[in-house]
Amino acid sequence: MLTTPEPEPGRSLPLLPNHPVGRSAVTCRYRCANACAHEAPNTSDNAYFGDVVRSIVDRRGALKAGTVLAVAGAGMAAFGGSAAASAPRRAAGRPSGGLDFDPVAPNTKDAVVIPDGYQQSVVIRWGDLVLPGAPRFAFTNQSAAAQAKQFGYNNDFCGLLPLGRDRWLMGSSHEYTSEEFMFLGYDAENPTEEQVKIAWAAHGFSVVVVQRERRSGKLVPVTDRHYNRRITVGTPFAVDGPAAGSDLLKTSADPTGVAVFGTLNNCAGGVTPWGTILSGEENFHGYFSGADAITDPKTKERLARYGAPGGASERQWERFDKRFDLGTEPNEFNRFGWIVEIDPYDPKSAPVKHTALGRFKHEGATIRLAGDGRVVAYQGDDERFDYIYKFVSKNTMARGTGRPAREQNKKLLSEGTLYVAKFTGDSPASEIDGSGKLPSDGLFDGTGEWLPLASNEESFVDGFSVEEVFVFTRLAADKAGATKMDRPEDVEPNPVTGRVYAALTNNSDRGAAGEEGATEPNPRNGNKHGHVLEWEENGNDPTATRFAWRLLLVCGDPNAVDTYFGGYDKSQVSPISCPDNVAFDEAGNLWISTDGNALESNDGLFSVPVSGEHRGHVKQFLTVPIGAETCGPVLEKDFVLVSVQHPGELDGASADNPGSHWPDGGDSQPRPSVVAVWKG
Ligand code: FEO
Ligand code: CA
Ligand code: CA
């Protein structure tokens, strides 16, 4: 039975001088355990080599070659395509229309605001039925048993897999819970057992069949008895890859080190060409407590590099399950921070934690198929001064969609080589002054190298065993000399051109005392608005170990001198701040969703052509309600899906004082939801 203590009038929220400008402090608190209020956990002294290596002879040539590849029509495409990555293909040559919309103006409305001529509908909300027999959502009478059958909280990633005409399997991750917004009178010092168990059931993942109604254009959920699925903190996961069975992963409940209950803080992800979903375990550290009890220096160093809290955790789950207490179960921490793979076509299959993709605060992972059939997974580690990674599989993708091929392909991410990115700028260090002013060559650009960390058989980092590289990947990457980036979020290859795009969302500590200053790939000190990085692998081969890069966008107010929009006329673009998720339509136009807009507008979804005369022409397609962030964009042929995460999550707001009434209106509580938008 849910208990609802009396509200505490005027209960003050912690003030966080260091939290990003546009994001509510309360979001920082629940989402990432105030990661930005603490010192960035990367205290390594990797040098930035931008001013050392300057001349790579073929860099300009590589750029020109890439340009001809990219013929996708700027301003031409309908939506078409999804976040699913696949082999590069030619532009579909669709007629104009999709980007032919009047941009939405920045605003702070409590609504999803879309361009004229478009329609929208809510596909599914927190608490809506997923499994047959789920009770109707009752905000003031929620239970863990009900929540385990209902759509979870704070949906982030969204992915669609085809299931027939106008029918899809929709996968949604449930990144985190915001208890003050879920429970009236929530007492953060004394959460009840039922509240904690509701939170366990509200995390994880949902698979829901969705159907598009031909007449209305709406996308509606279907209570499918076979496919619909909830994954929670209690769901059994298998562990595979080079760290499976390692002593570092063994606990008293699992002496084998290959079986873990649950997944935590699932942020972005990707749809694989073989029909599964990848999901990143991101700020998992915030669920653990008691690092102060650890005395072994090596273990302390490892915990610190991942930001493990010293005392109690925010949600105090350790009171009800000792595995979240590091003093009791130190290795449970090592069993999170992975990429997990979910097969939505096989609802009885155990999801898998792939240790071969490394362990860090995974934003997500997206796949590109190489010409020789191997697959490459691109990944970002979302923390100030952390890194961009890629994994190259050892084996090649089997053709076909039959069970043998699918089972074989579900092993592709079990064996391969993990790399981390090192970026080198081509402009003199003196021209990268931290202001965002373009260097004299007119571009923030240069070359890069993928530094190998380990394969299943061999470590390439001195002093690290294979299993240590994969379990303590951040430390191995420090040693290898990776480039410190401004919070790498989504990293995704363009399915038309093969170029890869990374959202670097912000880094208020860039250039702060004791921290690394501006570098050519991260050219602004106190970076409030973030930037978007573009690169192409040498020979357009995703398995290559070298690449050429440049910044596509340096985000912020177009009227400000420190912003750059791919060289496009800045008087014509929409302001954009804090890029988070990236996706592509079938013509190869980039779509960007934002988290933490620091320009006094709600977050939104933006489109931008990446080639042709409109390269850099950023246009805002929609905004989400107040307090929300936009994530999970899916660009289908005839509609767009966005996740509206944490609506109303404003400082000072709570369930007792709602900051939003979206989507149900009136005096209702806000509910995180998936929204569809289509032209009509
Ligand atoms: Fe969960 Fe990096 O955003
Ligand atoms: Ca340059
Ligand atoms: Ca994100």
Keywords:
single chain, 680 residues, mainly beta, ten-stranded antiparallel sheet, six-stranded mixed sheet, 9 helices, 10% helix, globular, disordered N terminus, binds MU-OXO-diiron, binds calcium ion
Oligomer description: single chain
Number of strands: 31
Which residues form runs of ≥5 with pLDDT under 50? 1-19, 50-98
Question: How much helical structure, as a percent, in the residues?
Answer: under 10%
Distinct bound molecules: MU-OXO-diiron, calcium ion
The helix count comes to 9
Which sheet architecture does the biggest sheet show? 10 strands, antiparallel
Q: What's the shape?
A: globular
The overall pLDDT average reads 90
Report the structural category.
Answer: mainly beta
Element layout with pairings:
Layout: H1 25-32, H2 59-69, E1 118-125, H3 144-147, E2 155-164, E3 167-174, H4 179-182, H5 193-202, E4 204-212, E5 219-222, E6 229-231, E7 236-240, E8 259-261, E9 266-271, E10 277-281, H6 297-305, E11 339-342, E12 352-354, E13 362-369, E14 374-381, E15 384-386, E16 388-396, H7 403-409, E17 416-425, E18 445-455, H8 466-471, H9 473-480, E19 485-486, E20 488-493, E21 500-504, E22 531-537, E23 546-554, E24 564-565, E25 579-584, E26 590-594, E27 604-608, E28 619-623, E29 629-635, E30 639-645, E31 673-679
Parallel strand pairs: 7-12
Antiparallel strand pairs: 1-31, 2-3, 3-4, 4-5, 4-6, 7-8, 9-10, 10-11, 11-12, 13-14, 14-16, 15-19, 16-17, 17-18, 18-23, 20-21, 21-22, 22-23, 23-24, 25-26, 26-27, 27-28, 29-30, 30-31
The structure holds MU-OXO-diiron and calcium ion (CA) (2 copies).
